[in-house]
Each structure stands twice: as C-alpha cells, then as structure tokens.
Amino acid sequence: MSAGLEYSSSFSVLRTMFYFQLVIMAGTVLLAYYFEYTDTFPVHVQGFFCYDKTFSKPYPGPEENSKVPPILVYSLVTAIPTITILAGELMAFFMKSESTREKTIVTADCCYFSPLLRRIIRFLGVYSFGLFTTTIFANAGQVVTGNQTPHFLSACRPNYTVLGCHSNLQYITERRACTGNPLIVTSARKSFPSKDAALSVYSAVYTVMYVTLVFRTKGTRLTKPTVSLTLLCLAMLVGVVRVAEYRNHWADVLAGYFTGGAIAVFLVTCVINNFQHAKPSPPPMRLRRPESVLGMPMVALPCVESPLEKLQGDLHSLRSHDHQPYRFPATPDVLIPSRSISSEV
What we know:
Layout: H1 2-37, E1 48-49, H2 70-94, E2 104-107, E3 111-113, H3 115-145, H4 152-156, H5 160-163, E4 171-172, H6 182-188, H7 195-214, H8 223-244, H9 250-271, H10 307-322, H11 341-344
Antiparallel strand pairs: 1-4, 2-3
Helix pairs in contact: 1-3, 2-3, 2-7, 3-7, 3-9, 7-8, 7-9, 8-9
Keywords: Cell membrane, Membrane, Transmembrane, Transmembrane helix
Organism: Ictalurus punctatus (Channel catfish)
Pfam families: PAP2
C-alpha cells in the first residue's frame, strides 16, 4: 500500500513539473511572437536633430536584400546547434560499451527513459528556450529605447521646411515629423541592441561550449579550437555586415553580442551544469544492527578495553613466548685461533 502511494505521489510531482515547464516554454514563445509580429508593444518615439550626420546614411533597402538576410541567420542559428548536439550525443552513446549504458528511472520504479533521448531533449529544449529568450531581450530593448538606425533620416524623410529646421542644433520631437513609409520608419527606430548579432552570438557560444565540454578528441589538439573559432568568427561577421550596411551602429552590435553571450553562458553553467551527466546521490549510510540479547536490541556504544583484560592479554603473550625455543641470531663465521687461552697465559 505504501509503495503504491509513493509511486502515485512521485508520478504526480513529475507530471506537474513537466506541465509547468511546458507552460513556461509556451509563454516564452508567445511573448516572442507578440514582440516580433504584432503592435502590442509600441516603439518609443525619440526625437532627432535636423541634418544629423549620425542618422543620415543612405537607406540600404529591406532586410531581405542584406548580404546576411534574417532567414539565413535564423536557419543557421537553428540548424548548426541542432546538428552538432545530435551528432555529439549519438557518437558519445554508441561509443560506450553495453556495460556502461544505464537506464534512468523517470517515474518511480516502473518506467525507464533512455539517457540518449533524455540528454538530447534536455540540451535542445534549453537551447530553444534561450533562443526565444534572446529574441525577447533584444526586442524589448529595441521597443523601450527606440534608438534610430544609421539610415533613419533616409527612411523618415522629414520635411525640414515645414519643421522649420534652420540649423543642425534644432531638436525635433514631433511624432508626425516623418513622411516616409510608416513600416520602414518603425523598423528604423529599432536599432539597440542588434537582434541578429545577439542571436548569432548566442548560438555560437552555446555550440562552442558544447563542443569544448563534451567532445573528446584524441591525437589532435587543434580540432576543437578550429571549430570553436570558426563559429565565433561567423557570429562576429554578422555584426560586421550589419554595421557595414548602415543597419546598426557599433554600440548596437556590441550590446547584442553581450546579450546573446551572457544568456548562453548562464544557461550552460547554471541550468544544465556544463553538459555533464547527473551524478546519482550516494546511498545513505546504514549502521549495522548489533546482536540482540534476549530479543531486545542493544545500543551501539564505543568499546573501551579494561585494564584487567589488557593485563591478561599481556600475560598470555608472555606465556606463549616462553614455550617457544630460543634461537640465536645468525652470525657470520668467526675464525678461532688454534692456540688455547691457557697456553697464552
């Protein structure tokens, strides 16, 4: 009866935790969707100076015309970590011997879960959560700050005559100052931090830490550094292209780097413990039950040798020693002179 109650309670706890994680993941995805594709969170409208050269770069065109379009960035940050984790876990699992493959108990004592599938779901699940979290942080920063891109004035197309701009020191705060396409103007107000840079660095740092901590390369010391530096360079290249095409400032790219890298390091070190196996807790130590006298259990107390018992032990050892024949120690042969002692006297 107690075993059944224990099983039902453990199963209910695990089921509750699973549903709770699903709710968190669904909420994260939904929040990222509202930030990205809806106007639920309006962008903060900042003013600008007339003829400001910082925001007067030429309009580079829509995001799809970029050398690193968003569809390419999203595909790479999804495909590269997924393929790397799948390949690494499959190699690590099949290279182990049958004796070292253990089953992990998930629901009390009835069901078993493959360690391979458990690790893959865990690592990819945490990565997906971090990917949506990075998107939320980047979009929230863009919405709250409302910093303009380097091509903001080219997209805004303000009418300087109507606004009365006579010098570069005049600051414009009117919300209807822009005459350009409202969608392009809204996009030009989302510069800080760079979302593409944040996603690229997050994906690269997460994958690099997985390769460094999980892969075991024998016979070569340059494989892991080469792969890691290649991934990091690709992530840095995304930010460089964003700056070169006048889509972001250097400060925006650096802030995106910091955001993505910090989230990746936090998830790897604090959530999944550096991709290590979960160490089983040691079994509790049990004291041996002493022999009982007349059916009553005895209390385990430290044993102290009495002086009388010690004296009896010493006498017994002396008696046994006296009955043994005495043996002289082996000495080297000594040459005795032929003359006797009396003759010398």
